[in-house]
Every structure is written in C-alpha cells, then in structure tokens.
Write a structure and sequence with these properties.
The chain contains three helices and no strands. By secondary structure, it is mainly alpha-helical. It is elongated, with a radius of gyration of 18 Å.
Length: 77
C-alpha cells in the first residue's frame, strides 16, 4: 500500500468515527484498519527521515541490524 492510500484510509476512518455514524460493532475493525494504515504511513515517513538525515543505506536496513554493525565497527577499533 502506498503512503497516499494509507493516508486516505486514515482520513476516511477518522471521518467515519468523527461523524458518529459508525456502528459500535464496526468501531473495533475500523481501529484495527487505522492502526495498520498508520503503521504504513509511519514506516514511509521514517524511511524518508533516514534519507534526509544522510543515512541512504539505512533507509532500507533494519535499525537492529545497524546497531549490530556499529558494535562490530567499535570492536575493530
């Protein structure tokens, strides 16, 4: 899912919940859908932040892997 699609899902869900017309049985599934869309948006934003911070390679890496690489570099010194 693209950032634009995830953001549109969040906007639609927010409007439905704010409108007060969502059936109570639908609220929990809506919140789960919103959580997933939010996670997609956040991941994209974090990737862009990493690139803007100059960490071009780190934009594709797992932060945990990067920490292990840094520890290995320190051990070599």
């Amino acid at each position: 899912m693209s950032y634009r699609e995830a953001y549109a899902r969040l906007s639609r869900i927010a409007a439905e919940l704010e409108g007060g017309e969502a059936d109570l049985d639908r609220v929990l599934p809506l919140l789960e859908e919103a959580r997933e869309a939010y996670a997609e948006c956040r991941a994209r934003i974090e990737a862009v932040r990493a690139v803007l911070a100059g960490d071009w390679a780190g934009a594709d890496e797992d932060p945990e892997d990067e920490a292990l690489d840094n520890e290995a570099d320190e051990d070599e010194d």
